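<amino_acid_chain>
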Amino acid sequence: MSKEYKSYSMELAGRTLRVDVGRVAKQANGAVFIHYGDTVILSTATASEKPREGIDFFPLSVEFEEKMYSVGKIPGGFNKREGKASEHAVLTSRVIDRPMRPLFPKDYRNDVTLNNLVMSVDPDANPEVVAMLGSAIAVSISDIPFDGPIAATQVGLVDGKLVFNPMAEEKEHSDLALTVASTREKVIMIEAGANEVPEDKMIEAIFAAHELNQEIIKFFDGIVAECGKEKHSYTSCAVPDELFAAIKEIVPQEAMEEAVFTDEKQVREENIRQIKEKLAEAFAENEEWLELIDEAVYQYQKKTVRKMILKDHKRPDGRALNQIRPLAAEIDLLPRVHGSAMFTRGQTQICTVTTLAPMSEAQRIDGIDVNVTSKRYMHHYNFPSYSVGETKPSRGPGRREIGHGALAEKALVPVLPSVEEFPYAIRTVSETFESNGSTSQASICASTMSLMAAGVPIKKQVAGISAGLVTGDTDDDYVVLTDIQGLEDFFGDMDFKVAGTHDGITAIQMDIKIHGLTRPIIEEAIRRTKEAREYIINEVLTPAIAEPRKEVGKYAPKIKQIMIDPQKIGDVVGSKGKIINQIIDETGVKIDITDDGAVAVCGVEKEGIDKAIEMIQMIASEFEEGKIYVGKVVSIKEFGAFLEFAPGKEGMVHISKLDKKRVNRVEDVLTLGDVIKVKCLGKDKMGRISFSKKDAE
């Protein structure tokens, strides 16, 4: 192939970032073959020629396609080919979507797809960041309207120092996994998981990444200047000014304020329904306007709510700007589960259920991250239609549900006990009973209590809260809102979710609808969420349950862990698992053994666990001379009796050692099945371990 394409490169955090334009996928609106280290991704951007009819949103699809060949693996399962997107792929698609979506025109309704085909993965060059950069430059050089480019950087915190786009080994020792996306002027997306990183350090990391992003944007600007296509024109779907003017004649500003100014979601929705009916009657003769009523009323509500908040400092439910809705918490709702708790904040209500299981139940992961093969803690989030008063069939978790579950999981992982401290696989499921703003953060609060109620010795309580934003015409004209409800999320500019303990942040997720945030806004949002989460921990979570229960519940499996000599593992397992299966059959437990000799015994009844541990310890240890043992008679010979002390572990008592007086026949003293005490005499002349019944009496 002749080299007719253009290639651009820059040094980024110790590795070369290379962008090839015009090399592949030339029929896409925009395409780049992007390399970072040995990670290679094909990022493409395509758009439909015409807008999609009958929709009131921008139809953007973001795909992150994980190909197992990229890490030299064949997919697991029977089919041996990639199927639906993995959870990791869904989460990555969401992270790419969030900073890109606000930069497309608000009135653009053409279908747009951003596809990222992961073709080679270098563990030291994260494909998530490469895909974000690839999507940004692919759209920027295309003819699709887009106010970019953006750039993204990951930040780690290793031994107190910030590390940009950390290597695989650095990630393992990092206290921070932060992704920051920026425009030329502002921060447009933040995603973070952290080991209780203090607020000041988090802000420092965010803006250090923002500075590095500016270098990448300059690099991209040079590519766009040489290769960028002229942006195509499109059919605007904006509501005509004449329609707005006509609506305001029928529904004055004061009437709209009265309709939306209530803390009852159902009342507000009924008020808006009546307004739409009134307008439909008024415009009955104008079919074009009738079709636009829903969008027009939405825009009218949005302008009204934003004006009330920004200019009058009045929120729709009457709260102060930093006021949290009424809170409630309770535990032990469900009698037979391992742990349960419910958290209520206004019209948002979450019930989280905790389930404990042996480590063999941990989730196995088959993906392109070769360093992650299993997951011990799983948080799942469900959002049924009844929680918002709607009716539709359940089709399983969508991208939003997967994202909310992952965010809560990220927030709680830093406070979980180690496997050595608590050898359980843990699953929490958050059921949304009612939703009116920030259910993901409510699920973190409910999960904290549920874990504690289940007896999981978490290190600290974690709470989450969301801050909102309404901006004016200038950077310093804004209002930050604590604990946003649904209406403020829909019509506002930001959903800034922060979770953490008293001592620091454990997770951040920032969604915005504008072209970025200034440093003062980010600092105020982080300060507000810290105040709110400390209030929730002190005033709500602690009164409900102050510390983890000392033991797991009655119906939870009990797990005891012991260590044995790794060389004895084969003795415990036996040929084809014969010995370990016999122990399991006799005691009713589950047994997990790792290569280092850690043995976890799991069961509901304490007696069965203790018996299994006794058997395992017997098999894995050597007989000690002078020690008393208990064995079962399994065979009688003329010269003595054979005893079984544990499955596969036997010894013999010579006839001369059965009783202090002379014994003529073994059967005179013992019968099959007898359980007797014997004393170990050590090795005999033949090197065999012998036992004595008479010396044990």
User: Anything to note?
Assistant: The longest strand covers residues 39-51. DSSP finds 15 helices and 29 strands in the chain. The mean pLDDT is 93. The longest helix spans residues 199-227.
